[in-house]
Amino acid sequence: MRFRKAKAAEEQRTIKTNNQEFNEQFEYANNSIKTSKYNVITFLPINLFEQFQRVANAYFLFLLILQLIPEISSLSWFTTVVPLVFVLIVTAVKDASDDYFRYRSDNQVNNRRAEILHDGQFMEDKWMNVQVGDIIKMKNNQFVPADLLLLSSSEPHSLSYIETAELDGETNLKVRQALPVTSDIGDDVHDLSTFDGQVICEPPNNRLDKFTGTLFFADNKYALDNDKILLRGCVLRNTEWCHGLVIFAGQDTKLMQNSGKTQWKRTNIDRLMNTLVLWIFSFLIFMGIVLAVGNTIWESQIGFDFQHFLSMDSIGPDSAFFSGFLTFWSYIIILNTVVPISLYVSVEVIRLCHSYFVNWDLRMYYKAKEMPAQVRTTTLNEELGQIEYVFSDKTGTLTQNIMAFNKCSIDGQLYGELYDKNGQLVEINAQTPAVNFLSWNPLADQKFQFYDEKLPLAMREENETAHEFFRLLALCHTVMAEEKHAGDLVYQAQSPDEDALVTAARCFGFVFRSRTPDTITVDEFGDVRTYKLLSILDFNNVRKRMSVIVRNPEGKIKLYCKGADTIIFDLLHEDCRELTLKTTEHLNMFAGEGLRTLCLAYKDLDEADFAEWSRRHHEASTAMDEREEKLSAVYEEIEKDMKLLGATAIEDKLQDGVPDAIANLARANIKLWVLTGDKQETAVNIGYSCNMLWDDMEMFIVSGHLEQEVRAEIENAMKKIIEVEHFETVPNKTRPIAEYALVINGHSLAFALQKTMEMQFLELACLCKAVICCRVTPLQKAQVVDLVKQNKKSITLAIGDGANDVNMIKTAHIGVGISGQEGMQAVLASDFSFGQFRYLQRLLLVHGRWSYLRMCKFLCYFFYKNFAFTLVHFWFAFFCGFSAQTVYDQWFITLYNIVYTSLPVLAMGCFDQDVKEQWSLVYPKLYSPGQFNRLFNKKQFFICTSRGIYTSIVLFFVPYAMLCTTMRMNGSELADGQSLAVIVSTALVIVVSLQVGIDMAYWTPINQIFVWGSIAMYFAITFALYSDGMYTILPGAFPFIGASRAPLSQPTVCLTVLLTVVICMVPVIVSRFIHNDLHPTLSDMVRVLQVQEGRRPEPRRRKPIRRVSMRRSGYAFAHTSGFGKLIMSGQSFRAPARRTAKSPKLHHQPSDLERVHEEGPQLV
C-alpha cells in the first residue's frame, strides 16, 4: 500500500492532452469511485470504533475487564465475553453485508468498458483506468464515464445530444457543441493522437450548471463553458459517436462531488439508550458505593465476630476499608444485569424481524417491475414510526414523467369529459373504453388514450375550427420526427409537453412527418401537405409564448401562436371577447383539476404587411445593440389581433395513489417538502395536482436574485404571517388561522441557506404547510435536509429516484429510493427501497408505526424485568453482611435472560400490534405518538424502572417474611438460601410472564407458546437441575439435590408465591383499567371499534370533485429559450439524401434525425 501526504487544495487545474507524464505530477484522482465505507484493511478498526460508540458496548467491555480480576469477580469471565463477542460479530456481519452491496455497485460501475486513445489507437479498458488527460470515444446510448470536454462528434457542427436524468431528473434531451477548432478533427485517430491542446480550468466543484476554463491550442486560446462539457452520469443520445478529453475523473467529477459521504446512521432510540445506559451505570455505581460502605461498616463493627470463618488474619479499619473496596467491584459485576448484553442481541433480532416483514409485504410489491420492497439498512426500522418531515423529489418520484393530452376547449366547446344518460359526470378509470383511433387513422400512436368520442367525430365531420386547432399543434413546435419504419414515428421534443401536444395532433389526424430549415410536412387525414416555414418567433421566459409563420400550399400566410393564457388573452382581437369568457371558464376548471394549460390562437397575414414586418425583423436580428429587446418588440408588432381557437389541458401524470398517500401523510402530521430541479411552474402545478397546495392557501414566492431581495421577501412573508396570527387569533382555536405555502427558487435558496439567513428561512418554512424548492442542485437538496435535521428535533426522511437525489438520501435520518426512470443510484444509496411513492404511506403508517410501538414496548418491558430481577440482590445484601452473595442460583442467573424470559419479549417485539393495518391507514393520527416520542422516553424509562424496583421489593420481602415465620409440615426448618432462591425465582418468572401478557395487545399462536411455554420451561429445567440424575452425572456442578422439589412441595411456599404474584400484578391491572377507562388514547378507542362485532374500517376514498380555480398551471415549454433560431439556421441539418418521389403516406421517408437534430434546453 502506497502512502502519500495529503494533496493541497486545487486553485486551478492544468491538463495537457496526450501527455500523461505531465498530468501525473499533479496526482489527479483516477476514475475509480468508492461509495462503500470499508475495505478489507479498514473494516475491523472502523467498525469496532463505530460499535464502541455505543456506550453499552464500552460498558460491557469494562465489565469484562473487571471479571478477569479473580479477587472481585464471583462470575466467570466467559459469561460476558461470549455474548459481547456475539453481538459484535452479528453487528459486524450485518454492516459488512450492507456495505458489500455498495462495494458491488461500485465495482460494477468501475468495470464498465470505455474506448481510450492509447499509442495511436482506441483500446477498450475499464472505467477505473481512465485518467485525466485521456481522450475517450463514446457511442450512442453509452454513459459518459467522466467529466469530458467535447472535442468532436458525428453530428453537424459537432453537436452532441445527452440525457441528464441521472443529474437533474430531466429526461428531455440537451445539446452540447464542441469548439470549431476541435470539431474539425472529426474521427481522425491520427489528428486526435497528435492533438496537443492545454486546458486550464476551475478546480473540482459541485456546480452542475457552471464550468469555466480556457483551451490553449495553436497559439490561440478559446473560452470553455458548460455547453462544451459532458458530465459523468449523462447518456449520449441520437449521436453516433463523439470524442472527449477527460477533465475531471472519479471522485472529482461533479456527479460524485454532489453525492456526499456515506454516513453511519443511528436512531433516536439508540441515542437515548446511550444516555440511559450512562444513567443506569451511575445508578449502579451509587448502589455499589452504598453496599461497599455497608460492607466496610459491617466488617469493622460486626465482622470480627466471624473472624474464625474468614480467610483474613485480622479485622481492622484498614482491612475493612479494603474489603469494602473489593465489595464495590464485586457488586458492580453482580448488579450489571440491570443492562444485560442480551438486550442488544434482542434489539438486533427484532430489527431483523421487522425488516423481513417489510421485505415480505405483498402490498408493497410493484408488479409492473417485479420489484418488492427492500430494507437495505436494518437498524432504522423503529425510526420509520417517528418521521415528521419528508423531503421528496418530483420527477420520477411523485410523477411518472409522462405528459398526456387530457382535455381541450375548442371554439367554446369542452372535450374530454364523459357523461352518463342522466347527464352526470362519469369518472374515467382503467375500465373506461378509449377511442379507437387506429380504426380511421393508421398513423395514430397506439399508446395515446382519449375517451370522449365527440372530438374524433367533430374531426371526421370536418369541423374547421377543430381542424385549425390541431393544425396549429402540428406546426407550432420545435419537435423532430424519426421514422425508421413506415408509419412508425418517434418524436424527439425539447419538453415532454410539446411531445404530448404533437402526439395528440397526430392521433386526431394531423400527423407531423418531417421538417427542413424551410418546410414542415404534415399528413392531414391522408393528404400530405408541405408548409413553407417563414419564421419562428421563439419562446422565452418573458414572452411565455411561441409562434410560427408559415405559407400553406394555397399560398396564404398564417401565424400560429400558443402560450400562457394570461399572455394570449391580451393579444386577441376584440371580436373574441365572448369566446374568451367561455374559454376562461374551461381554463379555470382545468386548473382546478391540476392540468397544465395553453391557449392557441392564429392570424391571417397580408403579403405586404408580412414583407414589411420581415424587413424590420431582419434589422432587429442583425442589430449590434439590444438585439433581444428589439426582437421582442418586433414579435409583439405581429402577434396582435389574433383569433382564439381554444385551449389545451395536459396532465403531468402522477404515479398511482400519490394524492391519497400525500393526504394520508398530511393527516398523520407529516410535512412534505418537494425539492426538485424542475422549473417553478411545473413544480407548483404538481403541488396542486397531488393536493399539497390548494386555492385558498396563501402562497409566498421567494425569487430574488440578490441577497437583499431574498431577505426582504422572507421578512415580508414572516410579517404577514405574524400579523394574521396575532390580530385574527380566535380563542380556543386549535387549527391555524390560515394555511401557507412557500415556493423558493434555487438561486434564492443559495442566499437563504447562508448562515446569516438560514434560521429566518427555516422559521418561515416551518410555519408553512407546504414547501416547494425549485431549480435546486443536488447539494442544495442535501443542505435543506441538513438544515431541518440539525435545527429541528424531528426525524427526517428523503425520497427520490435519481442520482441527483443521492446526497439528500444520505443526509436525511432515513433515505428511501424509488426504482424509477432514472436508474438505480438512489436505490443503492438508500436505507429502504420500493417501486412507487404510494408505498411510503404503508411503510410509515403501518410498518414504521408498528416497529416503533413494538420496540418501545420491548424496551420498557426489558428494563422492568431486569430491574425486578437484579435489585433483589441489592435488598438481600442488607441480610447477608454485604458479602456479594447472590440470591439466585448461578444457573438461574445464566438462564434468566437467555431462556426463561427471552422468547416472550421477542414475541412481543416482533408480532405485537395495537390495531390492525387497515385501521392504521384509516386513522393516520395513530402515528402521532412516535413523532412526539411518547412511548419510550426518559419519563417512561423512570416509570418502568420504578415498577421494576417495586416488584423487586415485593419479590424479596414477602418470601423473606414468610421464611422467617414458617416451618415445614414435618416441623423442620424451612428457611435456607436455596429455598429463598427457588421461591423468589419462581415468583419472578411468573410475574414477568404475566406482565408481558398484559402488555401484549395482539396474541398469536407463537405468543401463546412462548409465554406459557417459558413458564413451563422454567419448572422443567429447575426440577431437572436439582434432580438425582444431574447430581449423579455432575456432582460438583449440581450439589443441591431436591432443592426445588422440597420447598415447592410445601403448601405454604405455593401460597407465598401466589401472594407475591398477586401483590405485584394487582396495582398494574388496576392502573391499566383506570387509565383506559378515564384517559383512553386514540389507540384504545380504535381498538374498541375494531373488536365491536368484528367491524372492518371503511377506507377513505377521494371522491371525484370538480374544482374551479383562478390559478393557471404551468405553460408547456422548456424552462429556457427555445431553439427556433437553430432550426431556421439549418446548422444542425445534414444534407438530405437523394431519393425518388414516392407517396410519403404509403412509403418510408428518410428519418428526420438523419438530417436534423433538435436542440434541447441548456442545463440550468
Automatic annotation (TrEMBL):
User: Which is an annotated GO molecular function term of this record?
Assistant: ATP binding
Task: Give the residues the record marks as binding Mg(2+).
Answer: D393, T395, D801, D805
Task: Name its co-factor(s).
Answer: Mg(2+)
- Enumerate the Gene Ontology biological process terms: Golgi organization; phospholipid translocation
Give TM regions.
52-69, 75-93, 276-298, 320-345, 858-879, 891-911, 941-960, 980-1002, 1009-1027, 1047-1070
Q: Major location, coarse class?
A: membrane
Give the keywords, sorted.
ATP-binding, Magnesium, Membrane, Metal-binding, Nucleotide-binding, Translocase, Transmembrane, Transmembrane helix, Transport
What ranges does the record list as Basic and acidic residues composition bias? Answer: 1149-1164
| Location in or out of the cell | Endomembrane system; Membrane
The UniProt entry's GO CC annotations, sorted and at most eight, read:
plasma membrane; trans-Golgi network
- Report the PROSITE patterns cross-referenced here: ATPASE_E1_E2 (PS00154)
The P-type ATPase N-terminal domain extends over: 15-81
What is catalyzed by this enzyme?
A: ATP + H2O + phospholipidSide 1 = ADP + phosphate + phospholipidSide 2
Q: How does it sit in the membrane?
A: Multi-pass membrane protein
Residues the record marks as active site: D393
Region Disordered, annotated ranges: 1137-1164
- Reported EC number(s) for this entry are 7.6.2.1
Q: Which domain of life is it from?
A: Eukaryota
Compositionally biased spans, kind Basic residues = 1137-1148
Q: Where is the P-type ATPase C-terminal domain?
A: 827-1081
Residues recorded as binding ATP, renumbered to this chain, are: D393, K394, T395, E498, F539, K562, R596, T676, G677, D678, R775, K781, N804, D805
Could you confirm whether the keyword Transport appears in this record? yes
Q: Which family does it belong to?
A: Belongs to the cation transport ATPase (P-type) (TC 3.A.3) family. Type IV subfamily.
Its protein name is Phospholipid-transporting ATPase
What organism does the record attribute this protein to? Eptatretus burgeri
